[in-house]
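Note to self: keep these together.
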Amino acid sequence: MFIKIRAQLVYFFAALRFFTRLPTPAWVDHSQDQLNHAARYFPLVGTLVGLIAATVTLVAAMILPVSVAVMFGMAASVLVTGAFHEDGFTDACDGFGGGWDKEHVLTIMKDSRVGSYATVGVALLLLAKWNALVEIDATFDTLTLGLTLVAAHAISRLAATSLIFTLDYVREDATAKAKPLAVRMAPHELLIAALTGLAPCVLLPASNLLVALLAVALCTWLAARYFVRRIGGYTGDCLGATQQIAELAFYLGLLCSFT
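Structure:
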């Protein structure tokens, strides 16, 4: 039992080290096998990132306007992850926006230079998230805003993780950086991801939460169909783009009103 628990801890810390800049214990060494199983804890890492963003936001809101506090919380999440997912989103914007076939799309996404599609896309994305979070505070309260940040970061990473389970990785030259995202997940790994991804959602208003989850599911499904149609599967950049889109979809879903 101890060996199994220790193995899960190692997988979690491997995920934490891969997806964030947070420190990990010295006893956790680096191996390809660990990284191959790290994606199961992608949503749990998201919960931790969301907690950090929520804490910064709530503390800042004690002395600053909420609109400014939200900006600080967003900045905290970007710093913690090293803009890992935003980078994937921008690469996907450039690749799918400027590429005319699979090979061209993949080539552009691999280019480190930032193009016009990426610049406009990430600007609109960040602006939309900021506005949505400010409106969530106005619609509900500041505590709900904090809980929303935790839930959104977790569920959006579950959305991205689901693509690893359902789609094929399309790059033949999988680099060391992308290798953990190229290994198809086992059903029990997806179950772990689902449980940890959905758990933070239970504290949010049930009626609004249902719409938010449906919005995430719809956006994830549409993204998956689009990736398959354009390149036949996914890349690491596609996962980053899915996480960012799903996070925004969750915020917008909470704000939807049908009365």
